[in-house]
Amino acid sequence: MPLALWALTISAYAIGTTEFVIVGLIPTIAEQLSITLPSAGMLVSIYALGVAVGAPVLTALTGKLARKQLLMGLMVLFTVGNLVAWLAPNYETLVIARLLTGLAHGVFFSVGSTIATSLVSKEKAASAIAIMFGGLTVALVTGVPLGTLIGQHFGWRESFLAVSLLGVIALVASQLLIPRNIAQPPATTLAQQARVMINPRLLLIYAITALGYGGVFTAFTFLAPMMQSLAGFSPTAVSMILLGYGVSVAIGNIWGGKLADRRGAVPALTLIFMALAILLMVFQFTASMHFMSVATVLIMGIFAFANVPGLQVYVVQKAEHYAPGAVDVASGLNIAAFNIGIALGSTVGGYIVEHYGLAQTPWVGAVIVLGALLLVRLSGQLDKSQTAIAME
């Protein structure tokens, strides 16, 4: 794999750390800012909404910028956003900081996905995306547990200072490893963007992405308080559980990319969503069982993010067919869909926690994932029908 792909992975690691570290910090932020758990959980939704806006809108607006120049600028915005979070005196300032970093995140992954696929042959496209998104999973393995420990021992603000230092490292890596001669896609016209926004086949994939990811985050957003309050683990032990979860996610992400390359996006996603729905239902019963809860979380981690490579390569493949002049925008909209799912899942989870308690979040997440599974099967049937028509 080319060095430029590893530079994208380093940046994805920094971005993944700031996105997910909030999950481990929710109890600490709620306590130190004297806000409720659902209010602290809203910081996940707010970040996701920033990504959802940034991915399609800013990707389209920055289409004429040189790819390396754009990626460097995004890492500067990311670093500044985390410094604002470090200095945040109150909840409102923290909200603004999360929005800023979310905007950078959205454009980075939408542009990064198309750059990653352009660097390798078509048969390695899903694996290339998996490697880039592997930065997110490595962040879950190391960045999130370390950030959580820093927050528990020194305060949540210091966690964001540490993440801003990661942003500086990613900025240097981008400068050194990303070539200047990355292929510049043609500027996308408004008409091309509109075709992406209204194409029913692409909209179906975006719905799959939102539901598939949203179901996971209904429970994952409140994983730390669940493991403390329901399973009876200490805050330090929860950091170790998050570390194990991250290892599982890293394994699942690479496996998911290889599965999508080998079997195709739809069969891979069918298997992953089916397993994920079952595991969330199992977690509904094991969440209050000390060691069984850990075992369920670790197995669930393998499937939780394994859908990312398949979903992203699927939308790129369909965009090349239905909107060939706007693949970047289509990719950006799928990144938006991921984060609409995160916002949906964390908001629904917050509502469930507030009105029915932490213990009820897993089964609700399972129902949402089942919705994604049904839509995947529908999309697969439409693909077969289209192929049959083309062969006639």
Please explain how this structure is put together.
This protein has 392 residues and is mainly α. It has 15 helices and no strands. It has helices spanning 3-32, 37-61, 67-87, 91-118, 125-154, 156-177, 190-198, 200-220, 223-229, 235-263, 265-286, 290-304, 307-322, 327-355, 361-391. Helix 5 (125-154) runs antiparallel to helix 6. The chain is globular. The two termini are 39 Å apart.
How is the secondary structure organized here?
Layout: H1 3-32, H2 37-61, H3 67-87, H4 91-118, H5 125-154, H6 156-177, H7 190-198, H8 200-220, H9 223-229, H10 235-263, H11 265-286, H12 290-304, H13 307-322, H14 327-355, H15 361-391
Name the features.
single chain; mainly alpha; 15 helices; about 85% helix; globular
Short description:
The chain is an all-alpha fold and 392 residues long. 85% of the residues lie in helices and 0% in strands. The chain is globular and about 60 Å long.
